[in-house]
Amino acid sequence: MTDPLAATDPLHAELLELAREAARRAGELLRDGRPVDLEVAATKSSPIDVVTEMDIAAEKLITGLITERRPDDGVLGEEGGSTEGTSGVRWVIDPLDGTVNYLYGLPTWAVSIAAEQDGETVVGVVAAPMRGETYYAVRSGGARATGAWAGERTLTCRPSPPLDRALVSTGFNYVTGVRAHQADVAQRLIPLLRDIRRGGSAAVDLCDLACGRLDGYYERGLHPWDLAAGDLIVREAGALTGGRPGERPSWDIAVAATPGVFEPLQRLLEDFGAWHD
């Protein structure tokens, strides 16, 4: 059987190799270098939307490696490491997705790195070091993962159940008013689903959907760096993604699900006004 990721465009193969190396090295830094007395270095949208010194250090590692290997590429990083490029390639980086989990010593956090070519995501890598798992995809080349199992595993989302048997994950914004509205939407959804999970990392949630561990996922208020890698991985695993009906995932709402769950979940979110207060 031909490996779908071995037959990619040479540029995409180069980007994938670099993304995997950068994610691995940043993940090791975050896992092994976490101070016992880790503290908040800054806040963003609210006092509970935090940045740690390790977020900043991981982004510097990733952007430094990319700049060394591909100095003409652009970079969009969550912690401010953004530069314009001239090559047509832009890297979209979340050095630590799930910072609050990381701050508290919870294991659900990840390094997320995507590469865009001419505005389209062509490579995505998400490394979850505390799980010992890395997920990756190339556009039109499939999605794979490495972990505790032997070798690489092809990722395929679950067969679609009826909506009332779907396990769906979500996340909550750090702005109080938005969180309250999101809680109301979740309360209305719960009786219509098998259950709702809240993991704390958008990148990990999307990869869990790609791995068959969830049937759906939705969240409001995500940035491009939260979504870029995981969105490609989950689509290459056979899931559908979008925003409001007919739109792409956006800050307003991001929805991802197995094909049979996607439309009814998206429709309910639209009916419940999940994208506004």
Instruction: Give unreliable regions as ranges.
Output: none
What is the H/E order? HEEHEEHEEEEEEHEHEHEEH
**How far apart lie the N and C ends?**
50 Å
Largest sheet: 7 strands, mixed
Shape: globular
Chain-averaged pLDDT:
92
Rg over C-alpha atoms, rounded to the nearest angstrom: 18 Å
The order of strands across the largest sheet is 3-4-5-6-7-8-9
Count of individual beta strands:
14
- Fraction of residues in helices? 25-40%
**What share of residues are in beta strands?**
15-25%
Structural class: alpha+beta
> What's the number of helices?
7
Describe this structure in words.
The chain is an alpha+beta fold and 277 residues long. Helix content is 35%, strand content 25%. The chain is built from seven helices and 14 strands. The strands form three sheets. A seven-stranded mixed sheet has the order 3-4-5-6-7-8-9, sandwiched between helices. The longest helix is centred in the N-terminal third of the chain and has 23 residues. The N and C termini lie far apart (50 Å).
Task: Name the features.
alpha+beta; 277 residues; 25% strand; five-stranded mixed β-sheet; globular; seven-stranded mixed β-sheet
Tell me briefly what this model is.
The chain has 277 residues and is of the alpha+beta class. The protein is built from 7 helices and 14 strands. The strands form 3 sheets. A 7-stranded mixed beta sheet has the order 3-4-5-6-7-8-9, with helices on both faces. A 5-stranded mixed beta sheet has the order 11-10-12-14-13, sandwiched between helices. It has a two-stranded antiparallel ribbon with strand order 1-2.
